[in-house]
Amino acid sequence: MGTISIALSKGRILAETLPLLARVGLRPKEDPERSRRMIVATARRGVRLVVVRASDVPTYVGNGAAEIGIAGGDVVLEHGGAGLYQPIDLGIARCRLVVATRRGVDYRAAVQQGSRLRVATKYVNLTREHFAGKGVHVDLIRLYGSMELAPLLGLADAIVDLVASGRTLRANRLVAVEEIRPISARLVVNQVALKTRRSELQPLVEAFAKAAGRA
Ligand code: ATP
Ligand code: MG
User: Fold this and answer.
1) Ligand 1 pocket residue status of 102, Cβ below 6 Å
2) 106 and 176 share a domain?
3) How confident is the model over 180-199, as pLDDT tens digits?
4) Beta carbon of 58 within 6 Å of any ligand 1 atom
């Protein structure tokens, strides 16, 4: 039996992932939220956690550098899922991917008139697909964070971003004008590893499903 690495998203998903790990018997040996170590051992020998940037989880797992990962649905969809088997929606880190504009902007009218929209986002693939599906022409502006600023400074007419409570949007006088899809965190597994190391990985996948109430 070799080592199994589980790639976890740094940031907000991590806090909601820790109780799930405990229920699966994979309590970390040190607090991954505090530790500067990027590889953390767990209560189970041979299973370790690697803490990476949220958007990098599908890349680590898709390439087999980690056998399993926990990543936001947003990140997995934007990545495209190459090399990934996605057995479970973990139901944690729930939010919505939405289109938002400044308050008072008539988004519906702009869409109906066929105006060309400038849309700022870090989800360029999901955004392109969404607007292509509606037949709306967009100029995509790729940002890496703080999307809320773009409409305020006139960089874009709209943004595509995640919202949960809507507080950040409200604080910046923005409103969600369209929901693209609901989002939650998913378990992802390297497709090749699941075939070649099924006896090691399948029980873990099932344990996660049970812990997430999906079994
Ligand atoms: P970085 O800050 O390193 O660029 P990031 O901004 O993607 O990474 P987070 O903001 O922590 O990191 O978001 C990580 C994941 O948490 C997202 O991919 C998404 O799945 C989830 N998420 C983001 N915003 C929310 C939210 N408001 N509510 C619940 N989950 C969220
Ligand atoms: Mg962030």
Assistant:
1) no
2) yes
3) 999 999 999 999 999 999 99
4) no
